[in-house]
Design brief:
Elements: E1 10-14, E2 20-24, E3 27-31, H1 46-69, E4 75-83, E5 102-110, H2 115-128, H3 130-136, E6 144-145, E7 154-155
Antiparallel strand pairs: 1-2, 2-3, 4-5, 6-7
């Protein structure tokens, strides 16, 4: 069975150096930083949205796979945690990467199914979750420069 690829796009308008107003389809939301990083703490920060994206995607896929496997999920509670070293973000020397060193996602599932059946659902869901895939594998990101008065974007070389 062939499925047509899906394309998703968001747009963002900078309201300050730390605050971005984002539009996705018919939805709007804000991204901001904590006061400790110069923000107003009026919205989650980008890396919190990254964790939320993982949890949101896994919620959908866990329920989808559970249904396919005949596993009833009465309740699902997800907790995503990641730790990152802010040194590179701050322009300080470090051997660590800018992003999360690792992310842990804990799925607390209320079900009458066996631990083995639930583990199987989680294994399958992890492999089918697009956000988990993007976080677990190298996904090229192409940063393009476009001036406000230009019609086309130029690729910025990666460092």
């Amino acid at each position: 069975m062939s499925v047509k690829p899906l394309q998703f796009t968001i747009t963002g308008n900078s309201e300050s150096p730390t605050r971005l107003a984002v539009s996705a389809r018919d939805f709007s939301f804000l991204i901001d930083e904590a006061e400790a990083f110069g923000g107003t703490d009026s919205a989650p920060n980008p890396v919190e949205y990254e964790l939320a994206s993982l949890a949101g995607c896994m919620n959908v896929v866990i329920h989808l796979v559970a249904k396919e496997q005949g596993v009833e999920v009465r309740r699902l509670h997800l907790t995503a945690t990641g730790e990152l070293d802010p040194a590179l973000l701050m322009g300080l020397p470090t051997d660590n990467r800018a992003g999360y060193a690792a992310i842990e996602l804990v799925a607390e599932i209320d079900s009458d199914s066996s631990a083995e059946q639930i583990d199987k659902v989680l294994r399958i869901a992890e492999g089918r979750c697009p956000v988990s895939d993007n976080l677990s594998n190298v996904t090229p990101v192409f940063l393009r420069r476009m001036r406000a008065d230009e019609r086309s974007a130029a690729v910025v070389a990666r460092a």
